[in-house]
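SAMPLE LOG
Freezer: B-3
Tube label: C17
Construct: single chain, 244 aa
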Amino acid sequence: MATRETCALVTGGSRGIGAAIARALAADGWPVAVNFRSGEAAAPAVVDEIVAAGGTAVPVAGDVSAPGAAEQLLAEAERQLAPIGALVNNAGVNADGLALQLEDDDWNRVIETNLSAAFRLTRQAVRGMIRRRHGRVVNIASVVGTTLTNPGQANYAASKAGLVAMTKAIAVEVARRGVTVNAVAPGFIATEMTAELTTGTLEAVPARRAGRPEEVAASVRFLASDEAAYITGATLVVDGGLSA
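STRUCTURE (predicted):
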């Protein structure tokens, strides 16, 4: 396990894909700040698991969509661990509904959490990364924001498509400073959010199964590593062939 002078912040890291990412980064030597909004019990459990495996992690509470959250979360992670060397924008929500019935509040909540919060966190984190001339930002998008269309998810699709476009734009802006910005777009992954997937839905996946959070986390671990230093502005799709 490598040791690092900077830490990783994983938003929405108390369960599902976020927890798997936190564990994977810790296994690669990153001290990890596990952000959570409502996982008061789950986040410490993830931290305890990382520590028991020989890693370093702390829980960091906060709603990424709240005013001033970006500055507060990064400052707390740096206070407890080290400067931010890797930021994983994983926190997300959905509020599905056909466009004709979709309320403004549901639109705004999804866009604010999935896209705007990721922008504010990235804007804050890359300042230090640029000064150190090294950094990794990985945004967790979705195949819904790339090639797959689901009725009833106009807000979610817009937020994830925006995240992919934002990834490309910021990657170009900071590439010469040793900072990479990439996205991972999962398909159907076995988490609480997808617990009600039917067999018929999974039959649309060429791999004929849901993915595992650890399979998404492996992609993030690679993009955060030194081996991925020449990859930036990319979106790595992890979907079992769904969007092929």
